[in-house]
């Protein structure tokens, strides 16, 4: 049994980290979804420079460790005279990194919508943007929900990189607690439990959504 | 109304359309027949620029289809299209399939668009299916919805790209009946099909294509009883005697 007195004594500390992790997750989730969709649209665009830019972005960022992407913002920006907190840098890094995976998932989703859908929409006079918005994206989203929910669960867990750059997240405060109690193992068990409180419901929701979508075909 | 003049089209090295010259007048029903791969569908799809031509001139209502200055979306409003695989929007109810373009393109209100949609759904005989999803309908019903969707834009011409080829045999008739009604009401129609019965009965003119060329243009009576070209004769032998 882990020592629950640690949890009770440092509950406020844990909670502060927990709340910050939720904030960071939500901001990065929305940010990476918007950015990822945009990049996905770039990547399937008929305009070559856009396609090229999208590909370069995805291939570079997703093939670098997340920690290094975050370091770029945390240690790189100050050399340009911009200093942001660990929380902000970590969340931006996370957004930029996760966006690549979301872009790939959405791109695959868009590509899987039959070409006839676009042709039907365009032959009725809808513009490219209208075709995307009313016909292609709603169908693509259905297909990408399972891979996207995976990415979102990864995102929540990946917020732990904030701990390395004093990002005031759950991992950061977990480190603080551990250095005070010296009960390293017990301390991190509670950290893990706090992560599970966030990720298990997400997992469950993903499963539920997947089943519902499967039913509706 | 639709005019092809010396139209050529290449897909890379493949020469799909060769020196196409064709004029289609308002109110005319033109049926395009020919072996698979003869370029019929490609020719049809050039009319609303789902395919682009390589050279030559193609105009609809005196507007050059492939001119960069042409607002293609504006031109497409007036050209309805029905596809082999229906291409209904699976995530939208039947009624919303039909009202999407009238609302977003023509700027109709939802009520106006739904009223028009219901009128055309009744016309194709499936008013009661308005609130269902495409997947709940049979192929023939889906294709009739697709026709209603095209008509709801009140186009000046309707293009049909093998509208019955993906249907079970017992559903072909219901779709052809709708098309016959349209033809009798004076709709300008260009129909690519393998339904020779339909061509014979409904067409004002039959266009026979082979290997990217228009080989023969004639009234159905002439074409079916006395085709001038050898290739047309061979084709008719194959499709009529089986």
From TrEMBL, chain A:
GO cellular component, as recorded: ATP-binding cassette (ABC) transporter complex
Gene3D superfamilies to which the protein is assigned, alphabetical: MetI-like
Record-level GO BP terms: amino acid transport
Transmembrane segments: 22-44, 56-76, 82-103, 152-173, 185-207
Subcellular localization, as worded in the UniProt entry: Cell membrane
Residue intervals of the ABC transmembrane type-1 domain: 18-206
Keyword Transmembrane helix: yes
Any one GO molecular function term: transmembrane transporter activity
Chief location bin: membrane
UniProt KW keywords: Amino-acid transport, Cell membrane, Membrane, Transmembrane, Transmembrane helix, Transport
Pfam families: BPD_transp_1 (PF00528)
Membrane topology: Multi-pass membrane protein
SUPFAM superfamilies, per the entry: MetI-like
PANTHER family, alphabetized: GLUTAMINE ABC TRANSPORTER PERMEASE PROTEIN GLNM-RELATED (PTHR30614:SF7), MEMBRANE COMPONENT OF AMINO ACID ABC TRANSPORTER (PTHR30614)
Similarity comment: family membership: Belongs to the binding-protein-dependent transport system permease family.
Name of this chain's protein: Amino acid ABC transporter membrane protein 1 (PAAT family)
Organism placement in taxonomy: Bacteria, Bacillati, Bacillota, Bacilli, Bacillales
From TrEMBL, chain B:
Keywords: ATP-binding, Nucleotide-binding, Transport
Keyword Membrane appears in the UniProt entry: no
GO molecular function: ABC-type amino acid transporter activity; ATP binding; ATP hydrolysis activity
Domain ABC transporter residues, every copy: 2-236
KW ATP-binding (keyword) present: yes
UniProt-listed Pfam families: ABC_tran (PF00005)
Family statement: Belongs to the ABC transporter superfamily.
Protein name (record): Amino acid ABC transporter ATP-binding protein (PAAT family)
